[in-house]
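Hi everyone,

Forwarding the result from last night's run.
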Amino acid sequence: MGEHPDTDVTVGTSGTGGGFMKFCAGETDISDASRPIEGDETAVCEAKGIAFSQLTVANDALSVVINPDNDWADCLTVAQLNTMWAPGSTVTNWNQVDPSFPNEPLSLFGAGTDSGTFDYFTQAVNGQEGASRTDYAATEDDNVTVEGVAGAKGALGYFGYSDVEANPDKVKAVKIDGGGGCVAPSSESARDGSYTPLTRELFIYVSDAALTKPQVVSFADFYLRSNTKIVEEAGFIPLTDDQLEAALSELDELNTKVTN
């Protein structure tokens, strides 16, 4: 079946940072990422002789979620999230976040420090990547966050939009006020830019060495030319027309690099 029926594909799971470590060591051909590669990671790749290209493949509405029985936090401001998540925060009750909120214990769940989701959330909410209180339930497994939030009325967590859609009976997405009013995470609000500041792009990184392999080039080509179907089935948000045009242009340049 397909163009390369004898190709075996090995897929590993890690956070974005861990994935880049393997990628820059030459252990993988393609690295998925929920944030752009950083300068120190690029330096590691350069030191190992790993040249690469970045392709934008999807969008995501990074979502803050609460227990379905929570009837007071329909919308939260970025400042309120910062009150909860800032480094050194000692907030343990919802009425410490806002006096109008009830006397309900606040328990927090979120991404582990190896995750691109952690990097993006801390930058958007706390103003510095990696800046976060540490006394929360950190995990690379979003299912742990789902169960944690579902298990306590005062719980709050964050993860990608696909997990919101996959667990409608266990968690409830919060609207976010990034300064322009309350906006719920959705495909539409992510694509039109109104869900701020938690809309992000998702990427794949392809090494130049991998581009000598026809099966890798075919995979990248299929990934982008079937983007909407693949991304929607995975629970993420498809590229806008402009994003897709730019990604296909980059892909054409990669194909030219291979043929030359």
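The radius of gyration is 20 Å.

Cheers,
N.
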